[in-house]
Amino acid sequence: MNPKINLFVLVLSGLIFFGCQEESGPKPLPDANYPTTYKPLSQADWDTQNDKFQKINIYEGLILNEYGFAEGEIPLTNVDSITKDLVTNKIDTLVSMYHEFLGIPEEMTFDYENQIQILASNSIPRATKVGIRSFYEGMENAKEKGYFEDFMRDIRYKFYLTENQFDEKILDGVEISFDFDINKSSIKIQGNWVSKIVVPKDKIYSEGDALGIAYREILKQTGRDIWESKENYSSYSLLLKIKNDNQFEIRDCWIVYTVEIPYAGYTIAVYIDTQTGEVVKYFDSL
């Protein structure tokens, strides 16, 4: 082949290759109300919300935080073990009484035995949340089979009530935790649900755009050029709660993720805002 033609082909191939890693053309601006932002309340608004809260509050250790959500530590008395019934009944009572100040709709009903979760630190390959029913069934099975101590290793009785979905979209990072502590005779309550989210109708940055953005972010973070293995990548979209200075935001994101880079079990996930193209979260772990 003519050397000039050969050089032309190489340059053209390079342009096509790198072009695939760039977003196409200028993008429109997101909705003016996007992303949904929860900021600390003004003093006047907090006072109004706190007046309502104090009319129903029965625990001195439970207060309203700066966003107007209930949090704090309440007594756990006359308890010598953390049973499934104890947890479900306590959480049911707290949600029934404080739902407005936890961000939970009044009409919301729960299948607590399946919806309450606990972090199982001995899960394989890494700690994951499991349903409370499955956890206690596993505990009984461990007693029968003789590996109870291994099963309970590093278990903390911290339970989660997660808001999984909003407007038929997966919602990540929005949950309330209930930390049961026999030694301190208390339950620590943190977190909240959210009642308003701007859900974009269209994605300004496509799935293909997200792949190129993820490629460049992984290259920046790890120094690894993995474009040739892009077919091993997977992606999906969800709503993500992130903390940004003293406020938190709900963003519509693509997640581009892969495993086995550079070895089995190694996971990378890049969260990319579908409206702005920003990398809002980068996860890199075994």
UniProtKB/TrEMBL annotation:
Protein name: PepSY domain-containing protein
Biological classification of the source: Bacteria, Pseudomonadati, Bacteroidota, Bacteroidia, Marinilabiliales
